[in-house]
Protein backbone atom coordinates (compact mmCIF):
# COMPACT_ATOMS: atom_id res chain seq x y z
CA UNK A 1 0.00 0.00 0.00
CA UNK A 2 1.60 3.23 -1.18
CA UNK A 3 -0.21 5.50 1.31
CA UNK A 4 0.55 3.51 4.47
CA UNK A 5 2.87 6.19 5.92
CA UNK A 6 0.62 9.16 5.08
CA UNK A 7 -0.87 10.66 8.28
CA UNK A 8 0.54 7.79 10.34
CA UNK A 9 0.53 8.53 14.08
CA UNK A 10 -0.84 12.05 13.66
CA UNK A 11 -2.56 13.69 16.60
CA UNK A 12 -6.32 13.17 16.34
CA UNK A 13 -6.14 12.47 12.60
CA UNK A 14 -6.00 9.09 10.92
CA UNK A 15 -7.37 7.68 7.70
CA UNK A 16 -10.29 5.29 7.88
CA UNK A 17 -9.87 2.14 5.74
CA UNK A 18 -12.33 3.47 3.14
CA UNK A 19 -10.48 6.79 2.99
CA UNK A 20 -7.12 5.10 2.51
CA UNK A 21 -8.61 2.87 -0.18
CA UNK A 22 -9.97 5.95 -1.95
CA UNK A 23 -6.61 7.68 -1.80
CA UNK A 24 -4.90 4.56 -3.15
CA UNK A 25 -7.41 4.48 -6.01
CA UNK A 26 -6.58 8.11 -6.81
CA UNK A 27 -2.97 7.22 -7.67
CA UNK A 28 -2.47 7.26 -11.43
CA UNK A 29 1.11 5.92 -11.54
CA UNK A 30 4.17 5.05 -9.51
CA UNK A 31 7.54 6.46 -10.54
CA UNK A 32 11.10 5.68 -9.46
CA UNK A 33 13.42 8.66 -9.91
CA UNK A 34 17.16 9.15 -9.60
CA UNK A 35 18.78 11.53 -7.10
CA UNK A 36 19.14 15.24 -7.91
CA UNK A 37 16.29 15.34 -10.38
CA UNK A 38 13.89 18.28 -10.62
CA UNK A 39 10.30 17.10 -10.45
CA UNK A 40 8.42 20.43 -10.48
CA UNK A 41 9.76 23.76 -11.71
CA UNK A 42 8.64 27.09 -10.31
CA UNK A 43 6.19 28.94 -12.53
CA UNK A 44 5.16 25.94 -14.64
CA UNK A 45 1.50 24.81 -14.62
CA UNK A 46 0.92 21.64 -12.61
CA UNK A 47 -2.12 19.34 -12.61
CA UNK A 48 -0.96 16.62 -10.22
CA UNK A 49 0.52 16.22 -6.75
CA UNK A 50 3.24 13.91 -5.48
CA UNK A 51 3.10 11.51 -2.54
CA UNK A 52 6.57 10.44 -1.44
CA UNK A 53 6.70 6.67 -0.85
CA UNK A 54 10.45 6.13 -0.39
CA UNK A 55 13.48 8.43 -0.32
CA UNK A 56 14.03 12.12 0.38
CA UNK A 57 12.92 15.17 -1.59
CA UNK A 58 13.29 18.92 -1.15
CA UNK A 59 11.66 22.18 -2.05
CA UNK A 60 14.05 25.00 -2.87
CA UNK A 61 14.48 28.47 -4.37
CA UNK A 62 17.51 29.58 -6.41
CA UNK A 63 18.64 33.19 -6.27
CA UNK A 64 19.71 35.18 -9.32
CA UNK A 65 23.26 33.89 -8.92
CA UNK A 66 22.15 30.26 -8.86
CA UNK A 67 22.71 29.79 -5.12
CA UNK A 68 20.14 27.46 -3.63
CA UNK A 69 18.07 27.85 -0.48
CA UNK A 70 16.21 24.76 0.71
CA UNK A 71 12.81 25.62 2.18
CA UNK A 72 11.64 22.09 3.00
CA UNK A 73 12.83 18.50 3.18
CA UNK A 74 10.29 15.74 2.64
CA UNK A 75 10.38 12.21 4.01
CA UNK A 76 8.39 9.05 3.20
CA UNK A 77 4.68 9.55 3.79
CA UNK A 78 4.73 13.26 2.91
CA UNK A 79 2.40 14.70 0.27
CA UNK A 80 5.20 16.83 -1.16
CA UNK A 81 3.23 19.34 -3.22
CA UNK A 82 -0.37 18.91 -2.15
CA UNK A 83 -0.56 22.70 -1.99
CA UNK A 84 -0.18 22.66 -5.78
CA UNK A 85 -3.78 21.44 -5.98
CA UNK A 86 -5.32 24.87 -5.28
CA UNK A 87 -2.33 26.93 -6.47
CA UNK A 88 -1.69 25.21 -9.85
CA UNK A 89 1.65 27.05 -10.16
CA UNK A 90 4.35 26.84 -7.47
CA UNK A 91 6.76 29.58 -6.46
CA UNK A 92 9.58 27.09 -5.84
CA UNK A 93 11.16 23.99 -7.37
CA UNK A 94 10.71 20.43 -6.12
CA UNK A 95 13.52 17.91 -6.55
CA UNK A 96 14.77 14.54 -5.38
CA UNK A 97 17.72 14.45 -2.97
CA UNK A 98 18.07 10.65 -3.04
CA UNK A 99 16.61 7.97 -5.26
CA UNK A 100 12.87 8.05 -4.62
CA UNK A 101 9.63 6.25 -5.29
CA UNK A 102 6.67 8.57 -5.72
CA UNK A 103 2.95 8.13 -6.27
CA UNK A 104 1.26 10.57 -8.65
CA UNK A 105 -2.22 11.84 -7.78
CA UNK A 106 -3.94 13.87 -10.54
CA UNK A 107 -5.77 16.97 -9.41
CA UNK A 108 -8.87 15.64 -11.16
CA UNK A 109 -8.88 12.84 -8.57
CA UNK A 110 -8.53 15.38 -5.76
CA UNK A 111 -11.53 17.21 -7.24
CA UNK A 112 -13.49 13.98 -6.99
CA UNK A 113 -12.35 13.33 -3.41
CA UNK A 114 -13.41 16.86 -2.45
CA UNK A 115 -16.90 16.18 -3.79
CA UNK A 116 -17.26 12.64 -2.47
CA UNK A 117 -15.45 12.57 0.89
CA UNK A 118 -15.39 15.82 2.87
CA UNK A 119 -13.80 14.14 5.89
CA UNK A 120 -10.88 12.92 3.78
CA UNK A 121 -10.63 16.41 2.26
CA UNK A 122 -10.21 17.90 5.75
CA UNK A 123 -7.48 15.37 6.50
CA UNK A 124 -5.62 16.36 3.33
CA UNK A 125 -5.96 19.97 4.48
CA UNK A 126 -4.54 18.94 7.87
CA UNK A 127 -1.46 17.57 6.08
CA UNK A 128 -0.83 20.92 4.38
CA UNK A 129 -1.20 22.70 7.74
CA UNK A 130 1.44 20.45 9.29
CA UNK A 131 3.71 21.40 6.38
CA UNK A 132 3.12 25.04 7.27
CA UNK A 133 3.97 24.34 10.91
CA UNK A 134 7.25 22.75 9.83
CA UNK A 135 8.01 25.86 7.74
CA UNK A 136 7.56 28.03 10.83
CA UNK A 137 9.94 25.81 12.78
CA UNK A 138 12.48 26.15 9.98
CA UNK A 139 12.19 29.95 10.17
CA UNK A 140 12.84 29.75 13.91
CA UNK A 141 15.83 27.47 13.34
CA UNK A 142 17.44 29.80 10.81
CA UNK A 143 16.65 32.98 12.68
CA UNK A 144 17.40 32.10 16.31
CA UNK A 145 19.75 29.10 16.54
CA UNK A 146 23.52 28.92 16.21
CA UNK A 147 25.20 26.34 13.97
CA UNK A 148 25.13 23.54 16.54
CA UNK A 149 21.52 24.32 17.40
CA UNK A 150 20.45 24.26 13.75
CA UNK A 151 21.95 20.84 13.12
CA UNK A 152 20.67 19.46 16.43
CA UNK A 153 17.15 20.76 15.72
CA UNK A 154 17.10 19.32 12.20
CA UNK A 155 18.30 15.90 13.36
CA UNK A 156 15.71 15.83 16.17
CA UNK A 157 12.95 16.87 13.77
CA UNK A 158 13.98 14.27 11.20
CA UNK A 159 14.15 11.56 13.85
CA UNK A 160 10.65 12.42 15.12
CA UNK A 161 9.20 12.42 11.61
CA UNK A 162 10.87 9.10 10.78
CA UNK A 163 9.61 7.55 14.04
CA UNK A 164 6.13 8.57 12.95
CA UNK A 165 6.73 6.93 9.56
CA UNK A 166 8.04 3.74 11.19
CA UNK A 167 11.58 4.35 9.90
CA UNK A 168 13.42 5.12 13.16
CA UNK A 169 13.51 3.41 16.54
CA UNK A 170 13.88 6.77 18.24
CA UNK A 171 17.67 6.67 18.33
CA UNK A 172 18.92 5.25 15.04
CA UNK A 173 17.85 5.89 11.48
CA UNK A 174 19.18 5.87 7.94
CA UNK A 175 19.57 9.32 6.42
CA UNK A 176 20.68 9.07 2.81
CA UNK A 177 22.13 12.58 2.81
CA UNK A 178 25.70 13.82 2.67
CA UNK A 179 27.37 16.30 4.97
CA UNK A 180 27.11 18.78 2.09
CA UNK A 181 23.33 18.23 2.02
CA UNK A 182 23.19 18.86 5.75
CA UNK A 183 25.13 22.11 5.27
CA UNK A 184 22.67 23.25 2.60
CA UNK A 185 19.67 22.35 4.77
CA UNK A 186 21.03 24.25 7.78
CA UNK A 187 22.41 27.26 5.89
CA UNK A 188 26.02 26.48 6.80
CA UNK A 189 29.27 25.70 5.01
CA UNK A 190 30.49 22.14 4.66
CA UNK A 191 33.50 22.96 6.84
CA UNK A 192 31.22 24.39 9.54
CA UNK A 193 29.00 21.31 9.53
CA UNK A 194 32.07 19.12 9.85
CA UNK A 195 33.02 21.01 13.02
CA UNK A 196 29.45 20.77 14.35
CA UNK A 197 29.29 17.02 13.80
CA UNK A 198 32.64 16.59 15.54
CA UNK A 199 31.32 18.61 18.49
CA UNK A 200 28.12 16.54 18.69
CA UNK A 201 30.16 13.35 18.58
CA UNK A 202 32.65 14.52 21.23
CA UNK A 203 29.79 15.64 23.50
CA UNK A 204 28.21 12.18 23.11
CA UNK A 205 25.04 13.66 21.66
CA UNK A 206 24.90 12.26 18.13
CA UNK A 207 26.97 10.41 15.53
CA UNK A 208 26.43 10.84 11.78
CA UNK A 209 28.49 8.36 9.79
CA UNK A 210 28.00 6.64 6.42
CA UNK A 211 24.45 8.00 6.05
CA UNK A 212 23.45 6.57 9.43
CA UNK A 213 22.45 8.73 12.39
CA UNK A 214 22.71 7.52 15.97
CA UNK A 215 21.30 9.83 18.62
CA UNK A 216 23.20 9.01 21.79
CA UNK A 217 21.29 11.31 24.13
CA UNK A 218 17.89 12.37 22.69
CA UNK A 219 16.97 14.70 25.57
CA UNK A 220 20.27 16.60 25.57
CA UNK A 221 20.25 16.87 21.77
CA UNK A 222 16.68 18.24 21.87
CA UNK A 223 17.69 20.75 24.53
CA UNK A 224 20.71 21.88 22.50
CA UNK A 225 18.50 22.40 19.44
CA UNK A 226 15.58 23.90 21.41
CA UNK A 227 13.46 21.21 19.77
CA UNK A 228 9.86 20.82 20.87
CA UNK A 229 8.01 18.27 18.69
CA UNK A 230 4.54 19.74 19.34
CA UNK A 231 4.45 21.40 15.89
CA UNK A 232 4.67 17.98 14.21
CA UNK A 233 1.32 16.90 15.74
CA UNK A 234 2.52 13.36 16.38
CA UNK A 235 0.66 11.04 18.74
CA UNK A 236 3.15 8.20 19.10
CA UNK A 237 5.26 8.66 22.25
CA UNK A 238 8.88 7.52 22.02
CA UNK A 239 12.17 8.82 23.41
CA UNK A 240 12.28 11.05 20.32
CA UNK A 241 9.11 12.81 21.44
CA UNK A 242 8.96 12.48 25.19
CA UNK A 243 11.62 14.91 26.37
CA UNK A 244 10.38 17.79 28.44
CA UNK A 245 9.65 21.02 26.65
CA UNK A 246 13.20 22.32 26.08
CA UNK A 247 13.63 26.03 26.57
CA UNK A 248 16.80 28.11 26.62
Notes on the structure:
With 248 residues, this protein is of the alpha+beta class. The chain folds into two domains: 17-134, Sandwich (Jelly Rolls), CATH 2.60.120; 145-232, Arc Repressor Mutant, subunit A (Orthogonal Bundle), CATH 1.10.10.10. It is 39% helix and 20% strand. It has eight helices and ten strands. Helix 5 crosses helix 7 (190-202). It is globular.
Write down the secondary-structure element order: HEEEEEHEEHHHEHHEEH
Structural class: alpha+beta
Percent strand equals 15-25%
Low-confidence spans: pLDDT under 50, at least 5 residues?
238-248
Count of folded domains? 2
Order of adjacent strands in the largest pleated sheet: 2-6-4-5
The general outline is globular
Mean pLDDT, nearest integer?
94
Distance between the termini: 42 Å
List keywords for this structure.
Arc Repressor Mutant, subunit A, alpha+beta, Jelly Rolls, 3-stranded antiparallel beta sheet, single chain, globular, 248 residues, 2 domains
Which helices and strands occur, and which strands form pairs?
Elements: H1 17-26, E1 29-33, E2 38-40, E3 48-54, E4 57-62, E5 68-74, H2 84-87, E6 93-96, E7 100-106, H3 107-116, H4 118-144, H5 147-164, E8 172-174, H6 179-186, H7 190-202, E9 206-209, E10 212-215, H8 218-224
Antiparallel strand pairs: 1-7, 2-6, 3-7, 4-5, 4-6, 8-10, 9-10
Helix pairs in contact: 5-7, 5-8, 6-7
Amino acid sequence: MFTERFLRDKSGVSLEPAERDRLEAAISEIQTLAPRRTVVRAGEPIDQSTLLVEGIMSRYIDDRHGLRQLVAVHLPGDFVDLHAYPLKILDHDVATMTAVTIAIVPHAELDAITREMPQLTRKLWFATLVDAAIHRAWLFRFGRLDAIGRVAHFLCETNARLVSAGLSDGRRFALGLTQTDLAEICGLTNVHVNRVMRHLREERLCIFRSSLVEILDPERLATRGQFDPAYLYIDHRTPAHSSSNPRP
